[in-house]
Design brief:
The chain is an alpha/beta fold. The protein folds into 3 domains: 8-107 and 296-329, Rossmann fold (3-Layer(aba) Sandwich); 108-288, NAD(P)-binding Rossmann-like Domain (Rossmann fold, 3-Layer(aba) Sandwich); 331-408, ACT domain (Alpha-Beta Plaits, 2-Layer Sandwich). The chain has helices at residues 20-28, 43-49, 66-71, 90-95, 108-123, 126-134, 160-171, 196-202, 222-227, 245-253, 297-317, 350-360, 388-396; strands spanning 11-14, 33-36, 55-58, 77-80, 100-101, 152-156, 175-179, 191-192, 205-208, 232-236, 257-262, 286-288, 338-345, 365-372, 376-383, 401-407. It has a 7-stranded parallel β-sheet, sandwiched between helices. Helix 1 packs parallel to helix 11 and helix 5 (108-123) packs across helix 7.
Length: 408
């Protein structure tokens, strides 16, 4: 059957230096027109190109705004080749019938390893000693240098990264506490703590692994930092707005905290090569890294493969498993049939109108799936006859339709 739009003509655009493993997945799946760019595109550049793109891959620096979505006439899916998806207007993408996929677990180990390395470096006062050695000073002293064994690591946000960090910390002999707004199963000997204030006061090192959003903005502010032990350290590899940077600088200046390590910031350069500025640059007892906690070659390869496979599965079968903004639908392949995808606003009568169109055309339905949420409905129908293109035009005219698509 040849009703599907040919894969060789589906345009795939991958931005921001996404690992070539993603391109390899698309090529192996029959997608021939794959463009892989090392740089991000500005909003204006993206708006000028998005109208001809069917499948888009981005990283954290590319913003998908409502204006970009309004230009995306052919866009079928967006892949965020990273953990976060806050760079995409998820609601507008959904209302345009565009599922968004990400890789929530592929760089978990990479982030956890960097956190543990920073725990050791901060407790040994390595940042200050490193700066001194670069100036020619020889600070051979055990002052302000501690073993991690027996110290307490406080994990705020006990998700996939937080649990991995806890496992590694326990292997080094650390006591592990965690705080999360949801009940979580403890891994190993990690112990839950009832309140944020309690974990801040009890920990020698605090590491943050919470999502972005208004609910976590300045989660760690002046009062929270004052609640930490004198001489404790703070690590943030979650989201830049979680920590009040001015308050952190104040507590470092007063030597209430002995050090900090940050990988994310409220304002970050848009691309490699741009100047980076932070109030924390003046402190020698800080580790500042350029949003690379998850950027290992192994993690980037896994992310490239995982997100590309999700996009291919959706493009080939209509399955939206793993989408962060769309109805979660897992569909079997149905060889020998036409599959018609219909995305519509969730309003009464749409399914009846779809089935009426099939009945009027005397088309037998071999299988059908419907799922809705408060915003949209997603109907997948497998039919026997080779009438896909003819029926698509009829289905497209049903009131409330967002988009239709024919597969095989």
């Amino acid at each position: 059957m040849t009703t599907s739009f040919p894969k060789s003509k589906i345009k795939v655009l991958l931005l921001g230096g996404i690992h070539k493993s993603a391109r390899d997945v698309f090529h192996a799946s029959g997608y021939g027109e794959v463009e892989l760019l090392d740089k991000e595109l500005t909003e204006q550049e993206l708006k000028s190109r998005i109208g001809q793109v069917h499948l888009l891959g981005i990283r954290s620096a590319t913003r998908i705004t409502p204006e970009v979505i309004s230009k995306a006439r052919k866009l079928l899916a967006i892949g965020c080749f990273c953990i976060g998806t806050n760079q995409v207007d998820l609601k507008n993408a959904k209302l345009a019938g565009i599922p968004v996929f990400n890789a929530p677990f592929s760089n978990t180990r990479s982030v956890a390893e960097l956190v543990i390395a920073e725990v050791i470096m901060l407790l040994r006062d390595i940042p200050s000693k490193n700066f001194a050695a670069h100036r020619g000073e020889w600070r051979k002293s055990s002052k302000s240098s501690y073993e991690v064994r027996g110290k307490t690591l406080g994990i705020i946000g006990y998700g996939h990264i937080g649990t991995q960090a806890g496992i590694l910390a326990e292997a080094l002999g650390m006591r592990v506490l965690y705080f999360d707004i949801e009940s979580k199963l403890s891994i190993g000997n990690a112990q839950p703590v009832a309140t944020l204030k309690e974990i801040l006061a009890a920990s020698d090192v605090i590491t943050l692994h919470v999502p972005g959003g208004t609910g976590t903005r300045h989660l760690i502010g002046l009062n929270e930092l004052k609640s930490m032990k004198r001489g404790a350290c703070l690590i943030n590899a979650s989201r830049g707005h979680v920590v009040d940077i001015e308050a952190l600088a104040s507590l470092l200046r007063r030597k209430h905290l002995s050090g900090a390590a940050l990988d994310v910031y409220p304002e970050e350069p848009a691309s490699t090569g741009e100047r980076f500025f932070s109030e924390l640059q003046k402190f020698e007892n800080t580790i500042l890294t350029p949003h690379v906690a998850g950027s290992t070659l192994e993690a980037q390869e896994r992310i490239g493969r995982e997100v590309a496979e999700k996009i291919v599965l959706f493009s080939d079968t209509g399955s939206t498993a793993g989408s962060v903004n769309f109805l979660d639908v897992t569909l079997p392949s149905h060889s020998g049939k036409h599959r018609i995808l219909h995305i519509h606003h969730n309003q009464p009568g749409v399914l009846a109108a779809i089935n009426e169109a099939f009945a009027n055309a005397k088309v037998n339905i071999a299988g059908q799936f419907l799922q809705t949420d408060q915003d949209i409905g997603y109907v997948v129908t497998d039919i026997d006859q080779r009438r896909g293109l003819e029926l698509r035009s009829v289905l497209q005219e049903i009131p409330g339709t967002i988009r239709t698509r024919i597969l095989y």
